């Protein structure tokens, strides 16, 4: 028996323990070990029953995702899955009661292994699920055939198309779990297995036959699932594939339905969608590994916090801390500002409550963690302060100078600035080692991305503390360098430059927004600006002009500043790039004024406006992102290309099934990207400068993700 799968007899029951840290993933040796152990137990006279259990903190969290990269063709997948399905049938045909004992997570293949057991017991805090669609695949080990037989098609469809984990009690109610064990799981599972041996009871999920009524209800659920996916699975294939597999299981015998599952799985696992989603799965875990910050760097626990500035961002940040159970002081200059801030926070929680996501009691308890103040009283007790005052350098310097005086020497001093120089704040604070950026994305209490911006002197333990804190806040913390705009907004400047120029050259605001939402972004650039506020960008441009800079090379459109000067800030003023029913309304209509401004801008630049194809809009914008991303990498402001992909997936909703701007560039081929940069340089001007790293990778026939094309 391999170390990965242990076998022992306990109280007359064969106990098979899977021990493949950290999550007992099903690698080929683990599959083989389980197969051998079950066969051994079936033949072992000392065993009257069999229990399958995970070592460590969990049952089996699924197939080893890394293994899918070895499946180069559908045929590879069909061959491997034939073996897996046969193995699971051998398990299911064990001659003695076979019981899965679940704690922690039984996900994907883990739940499928459990479904091939005759019974399933679990601890009350265990979770089960089929999250495969989140990886662009579908359950490939019989889950789409057994789960509907155990839980009914409706629940199976919900679990498989949403990929969410289900708590043990709900799984028991659905018929997936047979018994919840109080106390020691193994002892409970052994006792349960012995009771089934005594009753000579074995139940094979694959032999459960659904009645015609159940099948018809299931087919109705299939139709409802397909209708729902029209909205929720835009541009994705896997959720539709899993519905097709479950439908096949309702219409055909188990073996034929299994073949259909394997065929659909094979299509998915070699798809770009799945490769992109698997890439992001690991990328999200890589971000916490900062090359020069050892894993054992001391990281403090943040128990008390303070936020300076009760505006939109400061209020959202205070909510983020309160939601994590961390008491937080919220300071502003006067009571009126505080009252406005708290009213916004109250409104946000009321919305959350109206959606049933929080009870009134939970809202009160959470809000009680936020203490409004107009002074620095109590700042000497906090572990971190997040500065979220107006995006004005002088005001921020002053704030950091004050914070350097009123906080403990070991307190972290973080700025929520979206673009300004962290080192300036560090200098002003007198404590540069304690200072860094914590750049939240609006709305701060919702968006998961947190750019952790390290200053020249930021200490390693402050970085480590920030990474630990990000997890506690439920954020994805990405460490970035302190260039103008950090990484997210630095690259966004190039995205917006192209959006503005495309408008002046002949595209419309509506066309550009439509094309990018069809590409998969939640909102186009103009809709995004009307939400964030055109005034925010205008003030940053003003500051840049004062220091002789622009956000991106190349022609600067006048239209954003023209709108700002007209007081058209977007939704909040009732007009911006679109017209709105009223200030604060989201109901928008195109505004002919924008076309007039674009005509004037084109005339001023001496260009003839032309119809612009959708494809050009996507190509120009994604090429600008990839080229600037390459610069960010080679200049060392991001540790690796996958950090940039995570930033765009979590900061701007870049469609996950495209993997992020850098992964997407790889799927096009960097030679294509470089050719486009060169073509645009010839057509539009020298500001289209190919990034040296892009040229280097193309010359070497590589992509951002082939070999070590990363900045370490
Ligand atoms: N394969 C390979 N590595 C995995 C893994 C997996 N399935 N799950 C986790 N890891 C690694 C992860 O990369 C990290 O590595 C470490 O384990 C800790 O993970 C056949 C086809 C279980 C809820 O989708 O959701 O089965 O960074 O940081 O926060 O039909 O891991 O330490 O080097 O996430 O405690 C289906 C994926 C697969 C579950 C635990 N299963 N995993 O969360 O730890 S497809 C999944 C998770 C499949 C079958 C189909 C979470 C977790 P490192 P972590 P965590």
Explain what this protein looks like in three dimensions:
With 712 residues, this protein is an alpha/beta fold. It has 3 domains: 5-270, 2-enoyl-CoA Hydratase, Chain A, domain 1 (Alpha-Beta Complex), CATH 3.90.226.10; 305-483, 3-Layer(aba) Sandwich (Rossmann fold), CATH 3.40.50.720; 489-636 and 639-709, N-(1-d-carboxylethyl)-l-norvaline Dehydrogenase, domain 2. It is 50% helix and 11% strand. The strands form 4 sheets. An 8-stranded mixed beta sheet has the order 12-11-10-13-14-15-16-17, sandwiched between helices. It has a 6-stranded mixed beta sheet with strand order 1-2-3-4-6-9, sandwiched between helices. Mean pLDDT is 95; it is low at 708-712. The site of (2S,3S)-3-hydroxy-2-methylbutanoyl-COA has 24 residues, from β5, α3 and α11.
Bound molecules: (2S,3S)-3-hydroxy-2-methylbutanoyl-COA
Shape: globular
Q: What's the arrangement of strands in the largest beta sheet?
A: 12-11-10-13-14-15-16-17
CATH fold field value of the largest domain: 2-enoyl-CoA Hydratase, Chain A, domain 1
Report the uncertain regions. Answer: 708-712
CATH architecture of the largest domain: Alpha-Beta Complex
Number of strands: 19
Largest pleated sheet: 8 strands, mixed
CATH superfamily annotation of the largest domain: 2-enoyl-CoA Hydratase, Chain A, domain 1
CATH class of the largest domain: Alpha Beta
Classification by helices and strands: alpha/beta
Termini gap: 40 Å
Mean pLDDT score, rounded?
A: 95
**Total of domains:** 3
Amount of beta strand = 5-15%
Q: Radius of gyration in whole Å, from Cα?
A: 28 Å
How many helix segments? Answer: 28
């Amino acid at each position: 028996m391999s170390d990965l799968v242990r076998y022992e007899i306990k109280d007359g029951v064969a106990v098979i323990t899977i021990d493949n840290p950290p999550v007992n993933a099903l690698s080929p040796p683990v599959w083989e070990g389980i197969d051998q152990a079950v066969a051994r137990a079936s033949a072992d006279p000392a065993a009257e029953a069999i229990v399958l259990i995970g070592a460590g903190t969990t049952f089996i969290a699924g197939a080893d995702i890394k293994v899918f990269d070895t499946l180069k063709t559908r045929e590879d997948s069909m061959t491997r899955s034939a073996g897996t399905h046969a193995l699971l049938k051998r398990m299911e045909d064990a001659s003695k009661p076979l019981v899965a004992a679940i704690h922690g997570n039984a996900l994907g293949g883990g739940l499928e292994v459990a479904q091939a057991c005759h019974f399933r017991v679990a601890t009350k805090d265990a979770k089960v699920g089929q999250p495969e669609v989140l990886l662009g695949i579908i359950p490939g080990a019989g889950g789409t055939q057994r789960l509907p037989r155990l839980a009914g098609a409706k629940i199976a469809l919900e679990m498989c198309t949403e990929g969410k984990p289900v708590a043990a009690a709900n799984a028991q109610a659905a018929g997936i779990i047979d018994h919840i064990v109080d106390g020691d799981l193994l002892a409970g599972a052994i006792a349960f297995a012995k009771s089934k041996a005594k009753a000579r009871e074995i139940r094979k999920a694959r032999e459960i036959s659904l009645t015609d009524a159940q099948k018809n209800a299931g087919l109705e659920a299939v139709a409802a699932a397909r209708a729902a996916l029209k909205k929720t699975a835009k541009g994705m294939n896997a959720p539709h594939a899993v519905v097709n597999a479950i439908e096949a299981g309702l219409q055909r015998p188990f073996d034929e339905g299994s073949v259909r599952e394997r065929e659909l799985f094979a299509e998915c696992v070699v798809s770009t969608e799945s490769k992109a989603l698997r890439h992001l799965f690991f990328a999200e875990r890589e971000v916490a590994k900062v090359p020069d910050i050892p894993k054992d760097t001391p990281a403090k626990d943040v128990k008390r916090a303070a936020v300076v500035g009760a505006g939109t961002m400061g209020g959202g940040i205070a909510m983020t801390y309160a939601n994590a159970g961390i008491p937080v002081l919220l300071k502003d200059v006067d009571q009126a500002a505080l009252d406005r801030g708290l009213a916004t926070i109250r409104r946000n929680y009321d919305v959350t409550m109206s959606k049933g996501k929080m009870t009134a009691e939970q809202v009160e308890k959470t809000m009680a963690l936020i203490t409004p103040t107009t002074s620095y009283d109590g700042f000497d007790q906090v572990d971190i302060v997040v500065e979220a005052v107006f995006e004005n350098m002088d005001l921020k310097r002053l704030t950091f100078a004050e914070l350097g005086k009123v906080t403990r020497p070991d307190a972290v001093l973080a700025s929520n600035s979206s673009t300004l120089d962290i080192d300036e704040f560090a200098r002003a604070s007198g404590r540069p080692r304690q200072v860094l950026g914590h750049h939240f994305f609006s709305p701060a209490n919702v968006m998961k991305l947190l750019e952790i911006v390290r200053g020249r002197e930021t200490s390693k333990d402050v970085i480590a503390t920030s990474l630990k804190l990000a997890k506690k806040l439920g954020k994805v913390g990405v460490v970035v360098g302190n260039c103008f705009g950090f990484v997210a907004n630095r690259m966004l400047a190039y995205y917006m430059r192209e959006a503005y120029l495309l408008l002046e050259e002949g595209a419309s605001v509506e066309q550009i927004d439509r094309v990018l939402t069809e590409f998969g972004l939640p909102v186009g650039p103009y809709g995004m600006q009307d939400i964030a506020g055109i005034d925010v960008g205008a003030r940053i441009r003003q500051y840049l002009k004062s220091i002789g800079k622009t956000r991106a090379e190349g022609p600067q459109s006048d239209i954003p500043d023209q709108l700002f000067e007209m007081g058209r800030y977007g939704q909040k003023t009732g007009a911006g790039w679109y017209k709105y029913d009223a200030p604060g309304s989201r109901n928008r209509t195109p505004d002919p004024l924008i076309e007039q401004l674009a005509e004037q801008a084109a005339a001023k630049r001496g260009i003839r406006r032309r119809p612009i194809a959708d494809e050009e809009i996507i190509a120009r914008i994604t090429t600008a992102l990839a080229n600037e991303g390459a610069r960010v990498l080679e200049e060392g402001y991001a540790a690796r290309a996958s950090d940039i992909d995570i930033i765009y997936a979590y900061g701007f909703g870049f469609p996950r099934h495209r993997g992020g701007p850098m992964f997407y560039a790889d799927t096009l081929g960097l030679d294509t990207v470089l050719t486009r940069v060169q073509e645009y340089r010839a057509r539009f001007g020298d500001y289209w400068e190919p990034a040296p790293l892009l040229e280097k990778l193309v010359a070497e026939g590589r992509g951002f993700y082939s070999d070590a094309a990363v900045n370490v």
